[in-house]
Amino acid sequence: METQVNNKKTNLLKRIMMTRGMGQVITVGSGLIVLCIVFGMINPNFYSSANVTNLLRQIAPILLIGVAQSYVLITGNIDLSIGSVVGMSTMISATLMSKGYMSPIPAMLITLLFCLLIGATNGYLVAKCKLPPFIATLGTMTIARGIAQIVNNNYNTDSIMKFFPEEAQTFKNFFYYGKTAGLYNTIWIAIVFWFIFNFLLSKTRTGRHIYAVGSNIEAARLSGVNIVYTTIKAYLVSAFCACIVGFITCATVGQGTMDAGTGYEMYAVAASVIGGVSTLGGQGILLGTVIGASVWGVLQNGLQFAGAPVAIRNIVVGVIVVMSVLVDIVVRSGRRRKKNVLAKY
Amino acid sequence: MTEYIVEMKQITKSFPGVLALDHVDFSIKPGEVMALLGENGAGKSTLVKILSGVHTRDEGEIYIYGKEHKGDITPVSARELGIAIIHQELNMCSHLSVAENIFLGREICKSGRLAKKEMNNESAKILDRLKIDIHPETIVGNLAISKQQMVEIAKALSTDAKILIMDEPTSALTNKEIKELFSIIRTLRDEGRSIIYISHRLEELQHIVDRVTIMRDGKFVLCDDFANLTMENIISNMVGREIKEKFPRVQCPIGKKILSVKNLNAGRMVRDISFDLYEGEIVGIAGLMGAGRTEMTRALFGIDPKDSGEIFLEDKEVKINKPLDAINNGIVLAPEDRKKDGLCTGLSVRDNIALPNLDIICNKLSVVNHKKETEMVDEATSKFSIKMPNSDVSAASLSGGNQQKVVVAKWLARDSKVVIFDEPTRGIDVAAKVEIYNLMNQLKQQGIGVLFTSSEMPEILGISDRMIVMCDGRITGELNTAEATQNKILEYATRFEKKLESEQSA
Ligand SMILES: Nc1ncnc2c1ncn2[C@@H]1O[C@H](COP(=O)(O)OP(=O)(O)OP(=O)(O)O)[C@@H](O)[C@H]1O
Ligand SMILES: [Mg+2]
Predict the structure, then answer these.
(1) What residues are neighbours of ligand 2 (ion), with CB under 5 Å?
(2) Which residue in chain A has the smallest CA separation from B297?
(3) Strands, DSSP E only, in B76-228?
(4) Topology of domain A48-327, per CATH?
(5) What is the pLDDT of residues A277-333, one digit of tens each?
């Protein structure tokens, strides 16, 4: 037995193939390559370095909210408040800066606190009060949007440059306009957090518990896993990522807009499920979310490049979401027997 | 100090509408195997769940290692006290690997990082000790039920518990695995550990058990050395009355052919199956775990796609491509895995029984006739004496055995031509088993063809008029009751193809 375990170690390729969720990552990954080739053929400028760096910067926030949603989906729940938390983060940080209350760093800390509060509330309502996650986060989604509107009395904020021109410029560069080693900082931020949260999910006890809760909550409870903490942690990660995306949005626009992040929770679901995260919980890896977010970004960018109007883009993306999940289900039911048929009768 | 490692005194526990435990006493010494026996719904699982921290008690005292344990026990504190439980229903995270399940909730970490290799190696050792040939990185959901059960056992053993609770551990195991488990139980006992063993397979007890505690209707009945009790004693104390015949048998004349299966193929586990079923007989399908019996019934009922083969019902060919085709033709199946296939656990008992019979209880406009539904549900639940506060409680709240009764009951509430039971008595107490046998006999007398699979030899021998033995997806033998013996069945059941070839060449 032991030698077997070690043998597996040596064969790296086989190990990668054996990793859970790799199947869909590879299928969708190939789809992504095909997409890139097709768009490149339609418009060679798709591959221009300007477009590629731009495309990557578009993908970055989608990846972050994708990570957010993936965490929650893997616990078997859903987070509908992501988009509103993005909006709230933008508005709170922008208000604090544009009114001259605080320079960017303390403003960010205060904002983060509020966002995490929403995340903790989500987790508490779902795990402790046993509210259906759809309802609980629908509630906090509305609340967070309300907060986003109320902080500046129902107006978008002024420019954040007004009181702290220097610090605000650094803020804008840090989150959006600046480049490090040839890549926009936004991309680096997404990469760094992706690595951190991927490590947390795949290599730590918390991560393991997140999978266990999503896979079989009762088994997890009986094994001594703290369901409430685990669920709250997942929602906190989600709120954290949404908060960061809020900063990125604020830096991009240079002011706070009340409707920032609208619809992001669904983009996040799309990025997750395209990448193979199951909405039923217990399944999926963050590498998949990278692929999912990339498919999303490439489609948007590529279709725009090919001259397709927004309406067409929406339709295509919707079809892709359904298709990618459908393909996965078909592939899996081909492999496994349809075990649940009987319960219906 | 007492001689007991665990003492539970006057434990009371009620669920909404049910008094599950009524001042129950229970105690166990170090280094003994204690059997906990009782009918379905007697409260056995509830009692051990209180000890392992799944449920909390309403009243009563618990002493562990001679010290009173005041507050509630939680799953974590139970583990710290050295109590481990193997649950009656499989409780695994099916998306996680074997090692991940074994170490769930007590992962080994090195500076915050999961020590995957250590856990895999550690699991491999435990599995080795159990002589289970499973790689620790296998995903649990891909394993057969019996293997999953072994993993569950490995998980409990891995905690090095002083008190080990096994709630019907053998109901899903193969004979070989049961033997392995028994020898492990003996080793554990000799190491001074205490084992609480719950089972409805009374014939197992003699191999391992030192003492016996019997419960009935949530109350303590008796506790004595196994050696002082006879099997009749045990059964009458469990049931509260004598059971005369464990395998009632009625004779009736064999009539015309009802069902005929010809060269049925479906996947790897159903190969070239042909058999006939006549009016007035019960045919038992014997075989070892994994012989393809369940797969065969599933293919017959139209759940799994067939590759080839013909099915004749009363000499007319019928096409069965989905369960509804089978039901419309009068073939029904009571499946094996009640949690997954048999029940909608979130729905009430009433809804579960009504579900396959909606065509009968609805009027022309598809509106449910409440009166008809109630009649049907009442008849079904009283016929099987299903123990529950009322039929509107959710199916999940019933005890394991009573859930099984609901699965059988819902199918028998309608008239059919052929009834297939897949392991109908798994986890059912002696008295209820007899009720199910009586029911099968009743069906047989009504001229309905009865087909049932079972892993319990005495049951197959005791109930069926004819038996078909399967091995590796093929029928390897057919026996009449008169000529059948356990050895003969076993011989057929182990006729693997390789063996056949070597026999032929020899
Ligand atoms: N979670 C629950 N909610 C409501 N009632 C319950 C619950 N668990 C058990 N019961 C009830 O408590 C009683 C005792 O159930 P228990 O599971 O302890 O029986 P058991 O002796 O283990 O039976 P079996 O042999 O069928 O497993 C039953 O009447 C059952 O319906
Ligand atoms: Mg039980």
Answers:
(1) B 45, 88, 400
(2) A342
(3) 83-86, 109-110, 113-114, 163-167, 194-198, 211-216, 219-225
(4) ABC transporter involved in vitamin B12 uptake, BtuC (1.10.3470)
(5) 988 888 899 999 999 999 999 998 888 888 888 888 889 888 888 887 787 677 666
